[in-house]
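Consider the following assembly input.
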Amino acid sequence: MAETDKITLAELFAGDAKEHPSAKRSALGHNLALKIKVELSAEQPQVDWNSQIDFLAGKAMEMLRIPLVTGILVPAWRLYEDLDNRITDDGDGKIVWLAQHVVSSEHHPHLDVVCDGVHTAEVASLDVSADFTLSGFGLVVQRGKITKIRAGTIEGSGSLGFKSFRMEKTFSEIKLANEIELGEGIPLR
Amino acid sequence: MKDSCGRIWWLIRKLEAMVVGALLCLPGLLHAQTPELAPSKVQANANLAKPQSAAASQTMVFVPQPKIPNVTGFTVLEAQRIVAGHFTLAAADRRSKISLQDVITDQLPKPDTTAKAGAEIEIWVKQRAPASNYSPLPPKLLPVPNLVGHTRESAIEILNAIGFSVGKMGTQESEEGDGIVLSQYPTPPATAAPKSPVSFTVSKQIQRTLTVTGPASCKPGDTLTFVAHLDPPFPSTRYQFTFGDGITSNWDFNPARVYAFPADGNYEVRAFAAWDGGKAESEPLTVTVHSIGYVATLTPSPTQQTEGKAIQFHAELDPAAENVHYVFDFGDKTKLQPSDSPDLLHVYSRPGSYTTRVSISLPDHEHKIMSAPTSVTIVAAEPPLVVKTGRWLNENKHWIIGGVVLLSCGFALGGIHDTWQRNRRKLARSKIELRPVIPSGKLRVRVQGRLWSRIESLRGRNG
């Protein structure tokens, strides 16, 4: 479970975060690829995009690789200024237990079309939003940096939209490691 | 008083002027005065009318009027010399430009009429002809001679003698003898300028051929019929036959003759024809008269052959005889081919239809049996492949040219398409990257109360 801290929205939208069945991920990517192909065919008609569906599916899933912990939760906590004010610099560090809260995120990833190094177009702008309810999470703060996360329970839901494609997904209970190392730590501010 | 005298003097002068004016209107009077009232062109007569005195300043003299000379047919330069000092020349058409070499074709007043000296003679001119043919006088026209009925040579002599040139000479088939003038142009009584050509057509006598047909062999005493054929026929033609045994028939309009040879032998029958203005003689027809009725046949195989390939000829005598001698005539103007064999090969070099015969001589050499004529046909050889190819190319050149044009267009279009495709592939080979971009999202934390519930020191927990 060493990788559980690297769960992204791609796995959450594709299926069970624990199992990451490739078939399901491929199905989501394929659906998005079909839409992206239409858009790309208009932008770059000289390319046979029909033969590039798998490639496009991979790119679609890459757009959803937004890390849950480091991409959504931590940046959201850092927005909460009160934490910074309450936690004074302490050499030994402190552990801050968080009350039950909800983190909402909204992202609009897209694909930049770069032809011979020149940006020529921007396609496949996705509408990705998710709500996560967290309970029992604790943050280890040392010298003003969040160095570890003591994980509690987390569950949530999300929606994914692209043109006529619309997907609502309940993430149910998301399994994270009990303690997630953040390396050198992430500054609170 | 002085004013009254002046008026009287003015009236006298007026009256005098009126009398002088009336006299001037009379013919045969020349009026001259000093000083001249108008520019005069009659210088030649100036001394005829000198004033006698200064007091009598005006004098009238009666002089005869000169005659207008003939200037028609002369050049303007010559005409000016003729009329010099007496008359002046003026173009009737004032707008035309006159050259000194132009020939005067008409004049007014006409010659030998009288006119005042210095009068203008109006002239009509003909523009000067090219220098080489220039003649001050119009050419005299010559009557065209009648050449019809003369021989060609006589007609040429006549034309040369009169001064005409010989124009085109044509020929026309005619019953006339050769070289008789049948028609001419121009025809009499036309006139023409000297050296102008006179064309004429001479006769070419129709060539007639006479042939004689009849049996080639018989027994003595057999009655044979020989027929003469004149081609083309001519009405009232008379015929005569000689039978080779010293007998000659009379001239008769009947082209057929019946004759019986009394004894064995080879005889040559000939026919003669005579008509108005012509006669003809046939080639001889050989008739073999023998107590045994021999029949010679010649069989070519095949009867149709390609040029350059051989035909086999087989001669046969019925009833058969030994030690006979054959002479083949292949009908292609090659030499007669003698042979002791009844079979012979012959190659024709040109396509066409040929009439062949064989004559078979019996050992006694007294009898020569001629076969009936047999025809063979020679067709043109298949041309070589190169010639056939060239002919085919020539016959189909429009299609070939069209095809080449189409192919060229196809190649050109293909080239354009390939270029487009290359450009497209080049474009397709361009490195196209799709870079996923995840901009920072909108994040929000919702919590009831404060986010943190409690804070613990790690020192205490670690201790």
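Chain B touches chain A at residues 424, 427-428, 430-459, 461-462 (CB under 8 Å). Ask yourself how this observation constrains the way the partners meet.
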